[in-house]
Specification:
Helix content is 47%, strand content 21%. It is an alpha+beta fold. A five-stranded antiparallel sheet has the order 1-5-4-3-2, with helices on one face.
């Protein structure tokens, strides 16, 4: 396994892919090889899968990423443009506006994110936060999806990382920090309702 994580072909089983699209990984790879996909870009491959092969958007993207990883066109954790990125997510029993504040309010943020320098660029309460990390060497994007009045799905992307080792390190880091955020916000919620 790559230090940055598992390939998409390891995450999405051949059986599940075939059930959703009518073909497994080997069949899709053979079809794309015959079409000359190694000479084409990410967007063109995904568009071809959607338009010529009738594959839904999510599966077209997954097949494209799987193909690019398998053919050495990109590494695990690397975007189609070549930069390195990691994502993490956590569902928290707290309102989306409070989750936004956990990133945007410096005092509250230090209670769950003591390391690293996060400088908020934009924030839309209950919706999203963008920030520079460590002086702008990389970028954080947070998207909040309310799940009712008191539950929120936090999706965090950390982009512009230098390499696969940074992806691996930040994958663990953000997993731990979001778990800390969950503990903090849920203990606050219990205190305010209890």
């Amino acid at each position: 396994m790559s230090p940055a994580g598992r390939k998409i072909t390891e995450k999405l089983s051949d059986t599940a892919l075939a059930a959703a699209t009518g073909k497994g990984w080997a069949d899709w790879f053979a079809l794309l090889d015959a079409w000359g996909a190694t000479e084409r870009g990410h967007t063109e491959i995904a568009r071809h899968l959607a338009e010529a092969e009738g594959v839904s958007g999510w599966h077209a993207q997954s097949i494209t990423v799987g193909y690019e990883q398998e053919r050495g066109m990109r590494a695990v954790g690397q975007s189609s443009t070549g930069d390195w990125q990691v994502s993490a997510s956590k569902t928290v029993n707290a309102p989306a506006a409070r989750c936004t504040a956990a990133f945007a309010d410096g005092e509250l943020r230090r209670r769950w994110l003591p390391e690293g320098e996060l400088e908020v660029r934009t924030h839309r309460p209950g919706t999203s936060v963008t920030a520079d990390w460590d002086g702008g060497t990389s970028r954080i994007e947070v998207y909040l999806t309310p799940r009712g009045d008191a539950k929120t799905r936090i999706g965090l992307g950390h982009t512009k990382l230098p390499d696969a080792d940074a992806v691996a390190a930040y994958k663990d880091f953000w997993r731990e920090r979001l778990a800390g955020l969950k503990t903090l916000l849920e203990s606050e919620e219990q205190s305010s309702t209890g």
